[in-house]
Every structure is written in structure tokens, then in C-alpha cells.
Task: inverse folding
């Protein structure tokens, strides 16, 4: 019987065959290289190639801040990866065709960002109401206008064509997507 066969037989008898014990390390991020980082553990040992994702393309990609503390998990079957972060520089989440990216400068990009920034609901409502009020005022003035005397003795008459209708002031709920909120 080979050494490997003996080891396997002992593990099976002990109930530990193919058991995978997960281990945890606390490290400090020393550098970032693409989707991996190099960490310093136990204030001295260098651990290169620590994955920033538990699996490739798992939908979540978090970049820790250099110098921050991270919790690293690994086992016999799993390569080391960062599981927890004290500080992060960026956060990217992909779910199906939707994505969100958050950077430490406060910027947030939804999907590809091609539609530019979100509307400031209150400010837009005020600007639309100002415009609607001005148009309503112009309609009212136009419809009430009478022509001046063309010649002595001729009667004055109102405008022969009128503008019908008026604009209804906008309320914020008309233009706001309340499922996405933002602020300064």
C-alpha cells in the first residue's frame, strides 16, 4: 500500500477525507495588481496574488485602499481572496445587464453612464413652473389684447385669433424616479 493510500485510508476512517478547513488571515494591502493584491500579514510576511474576488466574474469587484486592513480567506481548495475590507477605493457590481460603480471621489455611475447625471427634481420643477407660468401669462396677454385705433372713428377690436388652453404647473412627482435618490 502506498503512502498516499495509507493517508487516504486514515482520513476516511477519521471522517476527515476531503475535508477543507478554511483559514483566515488579517493583512494590510501593500499594492494592487489588476484583480489581485499583495498583502503584508503578521506585520512581516508578504502574501502576493491575493484575489479581490471570491471567483472570476462573480458580479462584485471591490478595490481596497492601499494601507487598509483586509481579512483574507483561503483553504486547500480555494486560493486566497479578500473577504472583508476596512477601506475601499472603488466598488463595482454587475447583475445581469445592470451595473453600478462607486468611486471614493463620490461619483456613481449607473450602467454605462451614457444618459449623464440624474435630474435635481426640486430645481427642475421650479424651472419648469417658471416657464409654464410665463407661457400662461403670454397666452393671457395675447388673448386679452385689443388693437389700437387705426383711424379716427373706427372701433377697436380684440385679436381675431386666440390661443386656447394653458399649461399645468409641474409637480416633482411628475418628473421624479423615486426608486433612485441622490444628494450632494
Result:
Amino acid at each position: 500500500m502506498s503512502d498516499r493510500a495509507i493517508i487516504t485510508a486514515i482520513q476516511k476512517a477519521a471522517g476527515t477525507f476531503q475535508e477543507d478547513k478554511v483559514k483566515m488571515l488579517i493583512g494590510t494591502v501593500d499594492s494592487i495588481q489588476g484583480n489581485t493584491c499583495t498583502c503584508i500579514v503578521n506585520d512581516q510576511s508578504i502574501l502576493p496574488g491575493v484575489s479581490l474576488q471570491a471567483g472570476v466574474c462573480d458580479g462584485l469587484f471591490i478595490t481596497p485602499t492601499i494601507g487598509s486592513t483586509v481579512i483574507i480567506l483561503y483553504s486547500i481548495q480555494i486560493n486566497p481572496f479578500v473577504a472583508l475590507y476596512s477601506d475601499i477605493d472603488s466598488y463595482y457590481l454587475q447583475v445581469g445587464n445592470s451595473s453600478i460603480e462607486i468611486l471614493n471621489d463620490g461619483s456613481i455611475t449607473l450602467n454605462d453612464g451614457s444618459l449623464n447625471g440624474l435630474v435635481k427634481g426640486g430645481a427642475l420643477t421650479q424651472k419648469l413652473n417658471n416657464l409654464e407660468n410665463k407661457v400662461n401669462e403670454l397666452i393671457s396677454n395675447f388673448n386679452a389684447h385689443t388693437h389700437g385705433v387705426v383711424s379716427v372713428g373706427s372701433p377697436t377690436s380684440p385679436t381675431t385669433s386666440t390661443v386656447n388652453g394653458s399649461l399645468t404647473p409641474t409637480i416633482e412627482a411628475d418628473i421624479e424616479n423615486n426608486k433612485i435618490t441622490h444628494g450632494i
